[in-house]
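Record type: monomer structure entry
Structure origin: computed from sequence
Chain ID: A
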Amino acid sequence: MRKIFFALVAVLVCGCEKMVIDNDVYSKGDNGGNVTLHITQTEGATRSSVLSDVCGRLNVAVFDAGGQKVKAIAQTIADAGFGSVSLSLTAGSYTVVAIGHNCTGSATVTSADKVTFPNNKVTDTFSYFGRLTVTGDRQDVDIRMKRAVAMIRLHLTDEMAAMNDVAQFKFYYLGGSSTFSPSAGYGCVNSKQTEYRAFSDDGVYCLYTLPHAANDVLTKMTVTALDASDNALGEIIIEDVPVTVNRVTDCTGSITGGGGTVTATILVDAEWDGTNEYRF
């Protein structure tokens, strides 16, 4: 029985993206530190240049020249001075990683090459990766973060009568990533992402992923309509959905019918670089 149990555990571990246990001891910063990071602006949010306009959480990690993590900072929008981080650092060379996001808890910055999020859920996310030389004197450093994700915005055009018993939708999609590499600026794991969204009268549902390159593809997305008891009422599979860092991919179609074709129309969205159109 023990062999069977451990075999089952091994299968489960291999079949899923691994959860990272966060053992960091976080602070909000060092009072009176000699280095202050000002993370006040974001690229990829043209009307929202202040961090607090787009993110509710900030995680900062500092690594020394040998790659050892020496600081782990966690702030929320409720903290005074959100986006301003004071650090006490000895003279030397460091790597700084900053992640702005909207998750339910802190992101785990394991290294400059790996960041994971609570429950592997991806929200609107901004990042910074850079080198810092500390002289020992007081320093103020301005940090400009860039959006790291692509948004998939689904417009379900079904008549309200056909959706009468739908309580929520399940979105299961492959091809993106829920783990991020700050040094590369892209997703770094082939993830199986699952999101649930409550039924919306406007038929619009927004999802996020971390592309593996500037332009990437979600190979398969399964959209399932569920009733209040999680019984499936309808389902559609959408394939080869284009996703681009800092762009919105608009997917428009019906869950009660239709296949999928990709159109190349790109529309401007003031909050993002633009919009890709995808109809199914």
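Annotation 1: The radius of gyration is 21 Å.
Annotation 2: The domain at 150-279 is CATH 2.60.40 (Immunoglobulin-like).
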